[in-house]
Amino acid sequence: MYKYIHDQTVRLANHGFNKEEIAEQIELPPGLAQSFSNREYYGTLHHNSRAVYVKYLGYLDGNPAHIHPLGPVERARKYVEFMGGAKEVIARARRCFEDGEYRWVAEALNHVVQSDQWMTDEAKGKAKGAKSEAKEEAEEKLLKLSKEKEKALEKI
């Protein structure tokens, strides 16, 4: 199986495909795919073909825009702005989810989460308040447990 992945990845790379394009189109032939030992249990054909590509050609895919991209937060903020704001992205993502476009939904919503625009200032305040309350509650429980432990040790 690994020889097949290797050979097909190199063949497709020699035809000018990048690692993502190869990963999307490579498939095991039926004789290999039907073998129980070749199931995608640890690692996948998608991941393994990309690894072969990177071994020989590196992680750059030939696209100059990928040489020095913006950081994830700045890039996400700009994507979300271009797409009409977080509320619009979330609404569109719901429709895409209903259409079964799960990979696209994950990618689009990742930009919303990374941009930190998905939560209103009021909701952020509530979240911080809830976090503080949870922290206080945990500290109280720890104090109570330590007192119980001390009492139990005194009895010994």
Structural class: mainly alpha
How many angstroms does the end-to-end distance come to? Answer: 63 Å
Strand tally is 0
Which term fits the overall shape? extended
Low-pLDDT windows of residues: none
Rg, nearest Å: 25 Å
CATH fold group of the largest domain = Serine Threonine Protein Phosphatase 5, Tetratricopeptide repeat
Report the sheet with the most strands, covering strand number, pairing sense and barrel closure: none
Provide the CATH superfamily of the largest domain: Alkyl sulfatase, dimerisation domain
Could you state the order of secondary-structure elements as H and E?
HHHHHHHH
Q: What is the level-2 CATH architecture name of the largest domain? A: Alpha Horseshoe
Number of helices: 8
Mean pLDDT: 82
* Share of residues in strands: under 5%
CATH class bucket of the largest domain: Mainly Alpha
Instruction: Give the total of domains.
Output: 2
Description of the molecule:
- The protein has 156 residues and is mainly alpha-helical.
- The chain folds into two domains: 2-65, Alkyl sulfatase, dimerisation domain (Serine Threonine Protein Phosphatase 5, Tetratricopeptide repeat); 70-115, no CATH class.
- It contains eight helices and no strands.
- The longest helix is centred in the C-terminal third of the chain and has 35 residues, at 121-155.
- The termini are far apart.
